Amino acid sequence: MPINIPKEMPAREILDKEKIFVMDEERASTQDIRPLNILILNLMPEKEKTEVQLLRLLGNTPLQVNITFLRMETHQSKNVSKSHLEQFYQTFSDVEKYYFDGLIITGAPIEHLPFEKVNYWEELKAIMEWSKEHVTSVMHICWGAQAALFYHYGIGKFELPSKCSGVYKHKVSDHKIKLVRGFDDIFLAPHSRYTSISRKEIHDHPELILLSDGEAGPFLIISKDEKHIMITGHLEYDTDTLATEYERDIKKGLDIRVPENYFPNNNANEEPVNTWRSHSHLLFSNWLNYYVYQETPYEQDRKIKVEYPTSL
């Protein structure tokens, strides 16, 4: 899928080298098709790395995708330049009058805080409420998944005895559900978090389906109306992301374990091997195909009489 991003965006050079089909606004405007419009609320601290990770996965199916990155107005990011945010990101007030085919809400390293203590919680609630009418399908990742479960379904999180960090096995519960079409019975995925959610509360909730569970707890949850997809781990992670996080935690002096099932022989001096890449691409492809493209109205972009943001 060709993804439409600004020519100047740093992620473009990396994606070009990987032969990911990236298209700029000038070329996109010459194609007589209805592109999908995807909004990405990037809450991760190292935003440029997350941009590449998500764009790589969104650029792997046949349709054109317009990407808009969203940042919080009520939070000042410390690990990315102000100029990068101003050039490549919109705020909620910029986009709230528009309709989008899909929305991705990323994780954030703030799971130690109660949701109400997060300084942008009220703004995030407004975005999640807005998404009910303005977005066809929403994918929530890690802390974003926990926030969605709490806001939409009243399911809270709980603190783990130690950080869940590593690559874990997960089992698919129902292959008939389109999100996991083509998945192996058992697949691997990275996790990196200090909190989790209750299997029982997911099972008992009348609006939710626990689609995949495993060694690290519930992994894939989907609402029965197929509006919300919650992913408690990080299938989008690069091969070395867990290693980078481990080194960061060690430098901070944290009492942290080596990520499980990640380094060969559990030796942090050896190069990790990516064992989740194929399912990462498959998950995002299934989401875009079955829950966005096949469900969104063709006239989605004409529900209102205004243009999409100029960053698309």
UniProtKB/TrEMBL annotation:
Its EC number is 2.3.1.31. Pathway: Amino-acid biosynthesis; L-methionine biosynthesis via de novo pathway; O-acetyl-L-homoserine from L-homoserine: step 1/1. The keyword Kinase does not apply. Substrate binds at residues 163, 192, 248. It catalyses: L-homoserine + acetyl-CoA = O-acetyl-L-homoserine + CoA. Pfam families: HTS. The record marks 111 as: Important for acyl-CoA specificity. Keywords: Acyltransferase, Amino-acid biosynthesis, Cytoplasm, Methionine biosynthesis, Transferase. The record marks 192 as: Important for substrate specificity. Coiled coil: none annotated. One of its GO terms (molecular function) is homoserine O-succinyltransferase activity. InterPro entries: Class_I_gatase-like, HST_MetA, MetA_family. The active site is at residues 142, 234, 236. The keyword Nucleotidyltransferase does not apply. It is found in: Cytoplasm. Transfers an acetyl group from acetyl-CoA to L-homoserine, forming acetyl-L-homoserine. Belongs to the MetA family. This is Homoserine O-acetyltransferase. It comes from Siminovitchia thermophila. The lineage of its organism: Bacteria, Bacillati, Bacillota, Bacilli, Bacillales.
